[in-house]
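Quarterly update from the structural biology core.
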Amino acid sequence: MLVWCITRSEIFTRFIEVDSSTLKDLVTTALKQIRQRDDKGSADSLRRLYDLLIAPVSSQLDPNKVLCFIPDEPLHSLPFGALMSTTSGHYLAQDYRLMTSPSSTILIESSNRAQARSTLREERLLAVGNPNFDRPSNPNLSDLASAEREVKEIARGYPANARVLVGPQATRKTVMDELPRAQVAHFAAHYQIDPQSQLSSKVLLSPEPGDRAHAQLSALDSGDIYQMDLTRTRLVVLSACQTGIEQQLRGEGPIGFARSFLVAGVPVVVASLWPVDSEATSELMILFHHFRKQNLSTTEALTRAQREIMNREKYADPYYWAGFTAIGGYSEF
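Predicted structure, tokenized:
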């Protein structure tokens, strides 16, 4: 395995001897242990991954700078913030501000877009929470009461310019009309992956009033996003399950709902790596927006929120906080 540490002033390379299947198995095992809340097992796996991926280059890392990972193959699914130092016992997120990007090209393009939108003072918020999705077609999906509370609480930080769509208000037409006008868009809703077509993976929304016959079509899918002009939007937050990665294509990196927004022109997307806990996510997201409104960047605000959540005994396990990552480019907002 090759690890490059690239800064403005130098490129540092480290060769690491590891069998590719061993690395893949280790990542798969760690993710399974995290999702099963196997504290001891996941801690052991996360330490082994730290020793493989971070320890060989730790002397090159500057805690005063944002650390951006551009991973390859199975590492796309890895929550880097949860890697645990074998010397300090710290999670990586406790020592660094972290982000990821699907490729170096997207990192550069998204960073340039972020810089071009950095002078904006007032942000317009679109917050979508707990839509009245078609329940007969989705009998196994629960109501997301915490998501409704989440978006209403978040909107309090944007008092002058917020559009909150909850329950029956969160229709496909209204969301698509409002999204291009928003600088910050936050979705707290159910997300469904279509294994046959990534373009059909979607956020479930509410049917149009009086149109129950087409209720199952009420959604915002990746194909919709790819066709939108989101050049006004600075940040999209996908407070839903597994919105960061669905599949990987050789040479193209991870393909997921987050990437749809990056292609449409959004420089920074916050998304999840696995099915998340609704209540813990609401707490995390409320904290995240609170820190952002203190003039912290998205990366800084997400890291601060994760540090605070992990210090709460109820949510200390990485399952509750490590699944979310900032994806795209470097930004000051």
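The mean pLDDT is 91.
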